[in-house]
Each structure stands twice: as C-alpha cells, then as structure tokens.
Specification:
The complex is a heterodimer of chains A (447) and B (475).
Chain A: H1 5-15, E1 26-29, E2 35-40, E3 46-53, H2 67-74, H3 86-93, E4 97-102, E5 107-114, H4 118-130, H5 138-157, H6 164-172, H7 187-192, H8 195-205, E6 211-217, H9 221-232, E7 254-260, E8 266-272, H10 280-292, H11 298-306, E9 310-318, E10 325-332, H12 338-354, H13 359-376, H14 380-394, H15 403-408, H16 412-422, E11 428-434
Parallel strand pairs in A: 2-6, 7-11
Antiparallel strand pairs in A: 1-2, 3-5, 3-6, 4-5, 8-10, 8-11, 9-10
Helix pairs in contact in A: 1-13, 2-5, 4-9, 10-16, 11-12, 12-16
Chain B: H1 2-17, E1 41-44, E2 50-55, E3 61-68, H2 82-89, H3 99-108, E4 112-117, E5 122-129, H4 133-145, H5 151-168, H6 172-185, H7 199-203, H8 207-217, E6 223-229, H9 233-244, E7 267-272, E8 278-286, H10 295-305, H11 312-320, E9 324-331, E10 339-347, H12 351-367, H13 372-384, H14 393-405, H15 416-421, H16 425-435, E11 442-447, H17 449-457, E12 465-466
Parallel strand pairs in B: 2-6, 7-11, 7-12
Antiparallel strand pairs in B: 1-2, 3-5, 3-6, 4-5, 8-10, 8-11, 9-10
Helix pairs in contact in B: 2-8, 4-9, 10-13, 10-16, 11-12
Classes of the chains: A alpha+beta (447), B alpha+beta (475).
Amino acid sequence: MRFLSTLSLLLAFAFCSSAQINIKTERYKLPNGLTVILHQDKSVPIAAVNIWYHVGSANEKPGRTGFAHLFEHMLFQGSQNVGDDQHFSLIQEAGGSLNGSTNNDRTNYFETVPSNFLEMALWLEADRMGFLLPAMTQEKLDNQRDVVKNERRQRVDNQPYGRSFERIGTLLYEPSHPYSWSVIGSMDDLSAASLEDVKEFFRKYYAPNNASLVIAGDFDVKEAKELVKKYFSDIPSSTIEPLPVNQPALAAAKYETMEDRVQLPRMSINWHSTPLTSPDDATLDILGDVLAGGKNSRLYRALVYDRQIAQNVFAGQGSRALAGTFSVTVTAKQGVSLSEIEKVVDEEIEKLKNIPPSDRELQRSRNSTKATYVYRLQSVGGKADQLNWFNVMWDDPAMINKDLDRYAKITPADVQSAAKKYLTKNRVVFSVVPTGKKELEAKPISN
Amino acid sequence: MKRLLLVLTIFCLTATVSGQIDRTKKPAPKATAPLMLPKIQRAALANGLSLMLVEHHELPVVQFQLVLKSGSSNDPPGKSGLANLTAQMLDEGTAKRSALQIADDLDFIGANLSVNATEDATFTSLLTIKEHLASALDVYADVVLNPSFPEVDWNRVKKSHLTSLIARKDQPAFVASNVFGILTYGGEHPYGQPSGGTEASVDAISIDDLKNYYSTTFMPNNATLIVVGDVTMKEIKPTLEKYFGSWKKGGISTAKFPAAPKIASTQIYLVDKPQAAQSEIRIGHVGVARSTNDYYALTVMNTILGGQFSSRINLNLRESKGYTYGARSGFSMQREAGPFTASAAVKTGVTDSSVIEFMKELRGIRDADVTQKELEFAVNSIVRRLPQAFETPGQISTQLMLLVLYDLPDDYYSAFIQNNEKVTVKDVRRVAEKYLDPKAMNIVIVGDVATIKEGLEKLGYGAVHAVSADGQMMH
C-alpha cells in the first residue's frame, strides 16, 4: 500500500492542528538563472514536470491584449527538434496528462508522466524553452489564432454573463493598468498579432531566468539534476524587469448595467483590496468564507436560505500579484430586483463592521481552507503547481508547509477591521439583467 | 548490481559530452516501474449492506462512498428529476438535525459530505479524519437512514431547482446535450429524460413522491459502501454495524428501459439561438452498455477517433482547420446502452463545414483499417495512464465504484493492461462498423439558424428540423 502514503500523510497533518505539513523540497539555480525545485514522492510511479514563466497578460503591450495566452498555445505547436503537434502526441502516448494555462501574472506548462518518461518530458520542455523559433510559421500562428478566437467565443461570447468579467476590469482599472484588460484579449488584438510579435515575446520572456521548473514525484534526485543540467544549462538568459506592484483605489462608486440573454439577474460588487503577498490577503479569504462559504454563512443564509431571493452567492478575495480585488457575486431569482439584493448584502456587511464574527465562524473557515488546500496537494501535479506558486509569487517554495499558518493567526477583530477597511462605498457595482429588464438593475442611492 | 553499473555508465557519458548534446533524438523511456494495485477486501453487514475496503494505515483519514444502485432511470413517467431531488434532500433535514445543523456539524470537524444522483446510481460520499470518525459517521448515517424531507426545506429546494433549470437554458452546451438525449432516446426511455427533470416534471413532484422513491430504493440490499483509509475490516465492520445496522432491507423497485426509437436516416435538428457566436454540435445515436464484450476494442477505437487531444477528430477540426477550441467523441457506457456522441462548439460560419469533417471522420474509421501505429499509440496511451488513476483515495474509490456499478470482477484492473493489448487493427475496424452508423445518426445543433440553416440543407441530409430548447419538434 506504499502508493497511498504521501497523500494520507498530508491529510492527517492538515487536519491535526498540532502538526505541520512537511513537504520536503530542494531549490537551486542553474548558472543561466533557471530555478529548479525538486520534491520526491515515490508513492506512485509517476512524475510531474511543471514550469512557470513569470509572464502573463499584465506584460502585454498596448494593442496586443490576449497575446500571452495566444503565445501559450504556440508552445504546443512544436519546436526545433519536436514536430508539429508532437508535444501533445508524445505525452499522450506515454500515458501522461498535460496542459498549460495563462493568467494575469504567469503562464504555466505542466505534464504528469509515468516516471520512466521523465527524461522525455524534460527534453520537450527544454526544446520549447530554448529552440522554439525555428519551428514557428505563419500558418501555425493563423491556426492557433483561430483556435483561441474559438476559445474566446466558447468561454466569453457564447456564455451567459460571459462578457461581464472583462467589463468589470475596465471599470476597476485605468486603461494604463495591466489588469484593465482581460487575459483572453479582444478579437481585434488577436487578429493583429504577428509572427514578429511571437519572436519578440519569446526572446524577452521565455528565458531560463524568468522560469521556475518543478519536478515532483518518483525520480532519483541525482539523476534528475543531471538531466536538468543536460537539457537546460545551455539555454541563454535574457534581461527582464519585473512589473511594479500597483494597487489602485476608487475615488467614488461606479454603477453599470449590461443587458444579456440570461434568465436570472446577476450582480457583482467589486472593491479594490490588496496584492496577494500582503498580510490582509488571508484575512480577506476568511472574510469571504464568513460572508458566503457554506450554508451557515451570512449572505447564503440571508439571501438563499431565509429570504430565498437569490439562487447562489459567492464572495472572496481575488489574489493577484500587482493588485487585489474583493468581490461579492449574487445570482438573483427570476424577476428579483438587484437593488433589493444589494440592500441585503450591504446590511450583512454593515453587521460585520459593527460586530466581529464568532470564533466558530472563523474555525469553520479555517477547517474548510485546510481541506481545500490539502486536497490540492493530493497529487504530484497539484503539489508541483503549488510549489511554483509559492516560488514565483513568494520566492519561497517552503511556504507550502507554512501557508496555513497565515490563517491560524487571524482573529475575529482582524476580519472586522478588514471589512471596515476594504468594503467601503467606493466600489464597482455591475448588474447583468435579462434583455429588456433594465428595471431590475442596481442603482446608486441618491442622497 | 548490473543495472546500477549501467546507470552510472550513462551518467559518465552524459557528463563528458555535455555542451554538445544531441537534442534531435527523443530520449527513450526507462523500464516501466511496477504499479502495486490496491487489495480489495469484501464483507457484508447483517442487513445485507455490502462493504468494500482498501486499507492503509500510515495516517488517520477515511473516505466513504455509498453507491446506491438506483438513480434517475427509476424516475416515473412525467416525474423526471425525482431521484436527483431526493438526493438533494438527504442533507436538508433528518429526524434529529435541521439542514443548517447538518452543515454546521460537518463543517466544524472539517468533514466533507456530498450527495448526487446519476442515471444508474445515487452516490453519497464522506471524507473525514479518523479522530472524528464517530461524529462524522453519525451525521453520514443520519442523512442516509433518516431523512425527514421537511416541507419548508422541500419548498426552498424545489424552488431553487426550478430556477436552476431555467438558468440552464442560457447555456447552449447544456441545451445541445439535452435535446440530443431527448431525440435519441424518445419520450419513454429513461436516458432520454434529463436527470434533473424539466420545469413541468419537477413541478409535478411532491414530498410524497420523494418519500415513496426513498422507501423503495434506499435499502442496504441495494447498496455497497466503499471505504478507503486508515481502518481494518475488523474494526470498521462493527462500527458500521452500529451506524448502518438499523437500515432495513426490502424489495427494490427497478427501472424499466423501453426500446429507444430507431433512426431511419441521418437528420439535422436545429435549436435556434439568434446571433450566437458559436454552434454547439452533437452527432450520434444509441451506443452500447458497459457490459459489452467489445469494451476494450471500443475504447481503443474511440481513443483513435475522438477520445483525446491527439485523436483524429480534434487534430482535424481544431489543429488542422481551426474551427473549434476542441472536438471529441465518446461512448457513454452505462448499465444500459448510453449514447455515442461526437461533439464540439464551432464558429458559426463553419457549422456546415464542421459537420462535413465530423461525418468524414465517422465514416473514415469504418471504411478503412487504422494503422498499426495508431493502434499502438492508443493502446499505449490507455495502459500507461493506469497509475494516474490510482494516485488519490478519491480516485481509488472511483475505480472501486466502477466495479460495483458495472459488476466487474475484483481482478479487473490486474487484467486491464493485457486486455487492452489484445486489441487488433481488425477488432477496431469491426467495432467501428458495428457500433457507428453514420447513415443513421441524429445531428443536433444549437446556433444561429438564420446564418447556418442554408449551408446545412446542402449537406444531403434533407431539410433541417426546427426543435425547441426543450427538445420538442416545431412545425
């Protein structure tokens, strides 16, 4: 039963308040600046390879929104020694799983393979880190541009409420702020992306000194180090300036309404909060749980359980590197006015500002935070991605063992203070109402 | 010792040639590491409840999965959604706990409870640490054995469920799958009924229906309890006897499966979504039950056709044509024959071209042998994936659940690799011919009719049929 041991170790540690999560890692750098993190877990004969490049949509230049993500697609189209479409094929034939993803702050690429295919996975990652451009063609770019435009149609344009997210971004941030545009980007900007853009982006951001490589799972440490050296050490580094933290604030409340082909009105209230490495980040996570985590949370009870004017409610801190937001999103029942919803949300927030939450509410939140956190660490793939998150965002992969401490320290008074400090009148209130039902929108209360 | 020497030699070579490595050659895999499959123990409580246990003792965590072999296929005519709503109501109140107490009791000890119903089964799962085993099992057994279906909670849950049915109509992907199911299985077959029900069917469901469904299906002789975690059979069996022993066995009402309608010829059905940016496409017909002897050949065949990224359908429609973000196919093998479906969301302007490419692939895998290389690729991909299916307790319990649901032998996974490797090019061709019939498929498309209709009518499938979002033919 050896292959179950690590997971259970984690679970037990997470639930026993006295004990600690203890994931052993080794971090080192190659001379070219590539950060390497190794975590051995021999419970199942598989290995996860996970690379984060510290580049996301925030790094895009004007007129090229969506480019970081389009570029991510190009990395699956072959490189100097890997044929077109071979990246997916080789890993799937090995019985592996793979993908990549792009957000505002970073782009990640990952695969989990049977452990005997580790060298092949490293060879594939190194080839596209070092030798992508010789394989890039206009034809491939045009094809993936079409695929990405379809991704946008599927996730945004053909989805109920799909276009609201990017609209909220433009209301929260000045046009010059890197979070003012969406990760998926606009159709026009996607159309404008050229092969020259691909080359420039690659040379600037896809360098070993802007990457963090995690290998987690069943491997021999000495052998893995040799392989990393063999495949990655001669890839040249580049010069990259990190983006500065830039936490804006709103000077006044903003209200906007979108009519959409939806049956249920939905409102989203958004506040500027704090970047993810700030101490208040965890406090705001707990505040989100107190407001909307589970049946006994404040807003769920008030809106969904007691009054039954809402279908569901979500509240939480959006943790991002340069700036954070806190949001409450409520989907109302058919025909319910969003002003009525907003009033209840405000009343519940006001209560929290006046009286701190109970110890039991905090304990429930900590327990569910622990559970969610630990479940993410069940697989070697999950651990690898989490290690890169802590390395790239906190410069400390060992945070994986300490992250829950951030939550243990927080008191009911801290949560109350955070509600007072962040959940102010200056916020973006965004309504989505069924076409022709403008009267259901939330409106500013005239003084 | 020999192996060790070999490894060291390779390292020395690597070190000396570093700087001029040959990147043109794909590194060969090392020998496959052995996978230890979990040992399954079986037992039964006095009332007939079957137990399956996979032990491990390093640390104190236990996962439970109660598989009840009744689901939405049992829904009576006109009351689809009944099994689903009964499942939703289990944790909404018991003889001794209110809905909020149930949630609070579990949240406070960090235990997770979930209940859901599919066509063939109802699943109630619990994850807890051993320290809180007794408290967690007390709630778990309470919701399974003593749900009280309180009227006030039922009214709230019913209203919420009706609202979710309304909201789902906004999602073209849901509408397409739903309409495809209704057209393919007809009004009588349970697989043609949406398992969540319709507004009319849910409206017709009363508390008494829930109680009646519960009392004729929730019985120990209709269930298996899967346990994965830090317990032995010797200790867990008496504990479960204590919590589940009062559960009474009885006669179980079974589902009826009338024949699905025969498809005379391939036809196109359109659900209008004016100005839609994409068309949601579903193509297929009735597939095959999980009990088929052709399971392995079918899985290999579909892996080549549309089961993963590197399959023919996706490489064609996405990677070659750029019509879609992803295209796929699959057999939903259930206790009865679930559907075979090929699907994608495609750009509105290429809806007809996408149907052409789909049909080309569906004919192609029947009309010619796949290559030996494609066969090996698919088999490798399937068998080498096995270790990843046993990484977490949740995954292990899912694998055991499949054994329970489809009456598979306990050595199923031991024989899995060998059974896949037996599949030949001829087998793939034979099952493609037997189980895919491109001449008699339903093609369901949710999209902008004004833009796509004309092109679709030129494809040779005759005039397209207008269908409502509820799957009703419009005249």
